[in-house]
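Page 42, continued from yesterday. The earlier attempt failed because a stray header line got pasted into the input along with the sequence. Redoing it now with the clean sequence only.
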Amino acid sequence: MGILLNSETPTHAVAVVGGATAGAEAASILAERGVLCAVFEQNRRPYGKIEDGLPRWHDKLRLKEYGAINGKLDHPLIHFVPSTKIGHDLDLAEVAEAWGFSAVILANGAWRDRPLPIDGAERFLGQGLIYQNSFIYWFNHFLEADYDGPSYDVAAGAIVIGGGLASIDVVKALQIEMTRKALAERGIIEDSLDIEHKGVVATLAKYELTWPDLGLRSAALYYRRRVEDMPLADLAADADEARRAKVESTRRKILDKAKQKYCFEVHPLHVPVEILADGARLTGMRFQRTEVRDGAAVRIDGAFEDVSSPLVISSIGSIPEPIKGVSQTGQLYDFADRDVGRLEGFEGVFGTGNVVTGKGNIKVSRKHSIEITEYVVESFLGLSGGSRDGEAVLLDGATAEARRTGQNVARWVEAKPPLEPSVVEGLLKRIRARQDEVGYSGGYREWIQLVAPAEVA
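This time it went through. Structure tokens are written below.
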């Protein structure tokens, strides 16, 4: 509920922006070293993409991570400040320079979808074009009685543009929802989580049906390079030919399993170049065929293909949202020292997790062997016989990066002069004032019980 000012009062304080996996890990590392932390979270709950970026069938991973985040943030030196978006509700420069913090860590993730690189594409948002983040948010919540967000019609023959794990989740969601609706029209009620667990083929087989029996066009994933290039298993830049061949084989195997279980299509070596439309409404996509040269997708002159579809979902990655005062080059923040994550233009502002990488997905740490990578990714995609025991390993990379950032920042602030007690007192007053403004009681456990997601309420 607060810290009394005495001889044990912390002499350093750090603001952490974002309370999910990376933010909670960094704050925990700092608090264990005696640093006061204020965790500013844009939502009422700190779970970030664990809650709203992963499709709802990742229930075990989600609940496990909820518990891990709660355990880290429930610390006497960590002050949680919900419903506070830095750059919107509070100015970053003011927090970093006027409040008195020793340092600031940006762990606010990559929430903004990378724009589809087609001229005029934004005109079709909501008119046949959807971005991944808003689609998955809808998929996770639209069956809730009090859901009041955007509504999407999952149409047969949808196009997904992407190639990573997140895009496979998107195309799976399309197939699962089409299957659920088609069965409901036949008077058969199946839960989408059960369809994901069993797979489309096995679910339909229960009723002596096959995917062609439904008379629906499969959703199709279009990727600019080869199947073997899909980032489904990490490949080190210095990998020899034998390891490269093994990784490429693993990528093909993973994708083939997913296609067979969920009945979607994959079209490699296609890059989108133009939206097809009837007036203001999207009606499909024009692709140009490519070939891979030296690892790059090179367009083939004159090799165009028009694909009709009422729905296109762009799943080409996520990037950090712009923050006033933070300079950017292209879509990423500028860093004065990328090795330690220190941002350009600020003496003590650091980035960690997806803020640094500009990626919105979770991925396997490079320390894992090919065999472990294959098991973990198949577990994440629901391909390992229903078991998801290994999918939490996908968070290892983000957690390790946040731990490294927390340790670097701790060393950095410990080399600075200690904060005066009056500065700490002023910081605490500002923190408490913002907590009061958003209705936060000051007790983390009590707050989480009040705002807990439905599955843990």
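Notes: The longest strand covers residues 281-293.
Reminder to self: strip header lines before submitting.
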